[in-house]
Amino acid sequence: MHYTDRVHAGRVLGARLEYLRGEDPVVLGLPRGGVPVAAVVAALLTAELDVVLVGKVGAPGTAELAVGAVGEGRHGSDWVEVRAEPVLALLELSWSDVADTVARVKADLTDQSRRLRGGGEPHSLRGRTVVVVDDGVATGSTVEAAVRVVRGLGAERVVLAVPVAPASVVDRLTEIADDVVCPLAPDDLNSVGQWYEDFTQVDDAEVRELLSR
């Protein structure tokens, strides 16, 4: 199976998430590509829609190696910091060693929130069932950080929903999310886009329009 586009992927996920309809969930899309998928899921579940803003914190001199992640708080200042302690220990680093990088990530996320929400406040997640949605997963590092951030914001239950992800990554993600919904889990995944007929890039304007509905 391939997806026609992100709307089709959202419909497939929404059908598999029907069991959440009575739980008044919050659906969070990972910008930017995950938001059109999340919007369809939210509509099918008659749920609130928002974004989850997460930034990876790279190691000094090796930015692609993540030593943690930072997630947007609910009031503009109460940030959630997720530290990859084994990686920090391996590199003989402390969290204070990456303080400048953390500050830059927070500034970027603040700017991203302003651009996408137009100054609006994020939804409260405390005590809620939260569905984290992306348009696909390659390594899983970003969605893993998102799940941990959502837990840090007080979510009672976290469901991860993605249209496609490698089977090995799905297995790993089941250890951190309460449930993982992934209709396509191939053994090998070269790129997420190969599983879509239309994988057009999503811009900020489209995300803003979806969030304003």
From TrEMBL:
Domain Phosphoribosyltransferase: 16-173
Sorted UniProt keywords: Transferase
InterPro entries tied to this protein: PRTase-like, PRTase_dom
CDD domains found in the cross-reference section: PRTases_typeI (cd06223)
GO molecular function terms noted in the UniProt entry: transferase activity
Presence of keyword Nucleotide-binding: no
Domain of life: Bacteria
Protein name: Putative phosphoribosyl transferase
Species, as recorded: Actinokineospora cianjurensis
